[in-house]
Design brief:
By secondary structure, this protein is an alpha+beta fold. 23% of the residues lie in helices and 44% in strands.
Length: 185
């Protein structure tokens, strides 16, 4: 009995040495609140973008055609025309989060704004992206990101999952999160 228990423990220990398919870094729960009315240096808010500028940026950053970027943002031809006619304005907000001392991916939010003078507010979030590259490292992510637009100035998000050396990440980033609403991606 004792020998079989020791043998079982040895097999379990040796089996644990291999990391094929094992997470390299785990993010149990990384929760953050971003307040756009109280800018800190760890968040980066872009200048105002037109609808077409936002679509071009998404296409360029993701290496996809402009029409695909427009569709991923959830815009039909008609709603894209309406956004252009209404002269809707957009911005991006980027914030890094720490997985470990050597790896800090970035969350990027694309949002429609309401602006007047120095005032700006978030009308809705239209896209959420996780940028995997950091100082030459790029990890694949398996998990979920929960995003809640608490009010017109505050985004609450939770990253919950694992980062892997190999694999691929499938990401459905087009969202429509209005004030007081949330989504899990």
């Amino acid at each position: 009995m004792k020998k079989s228990l020791i043998g079982l423990l040895c097999v379990a220990a040796l089996g644990g040495v291999s990391n094929i398919g094992q997470p390299v870094f785990a993010v149990e729960v990384d929760a953050s609140v971003i307040d756009i009315s109280n800018e800190k240096k760890e968040i980066n808010i872009s200048p105002v973008l037109t609808f077409d500028e936002m679509v071009r940026e998404v296409a360029k950053e993701n290496g996809i055609p402009i029409i695909q970027a427009q569709q991923e943002l959830g815009f039909t031809d008609e709603s894209a025309r309406q956004a252009r006619t209404a002269r809707a304005t957009y911005r991006t907000l980027s914030q890094s989060f720490t997985v470990n001392a050597s790896y800090r991916p970035t969350m990027r939010f694309y949002w429609e704004t309401s602006e007047s003078g120095n005032f700006r507010a978030i009308k809705r979030i239209v896209r959420v992206e996780m940028i995997h590259g950091y100082k030459g490292l790029s990890k694949q992510f398996g998990g979920t990101v929960y995003v809640h637009l608490e009010d017109a100035n505050r985004i609450f998000y939770i990253v919950n999952g694992d980062f892997f050396n190999n694999g691929s990440t499938t990401w459905n980033a087009g969202v429509n999160i209005g004030v007081g609403r949330n989504a899990s991606i």
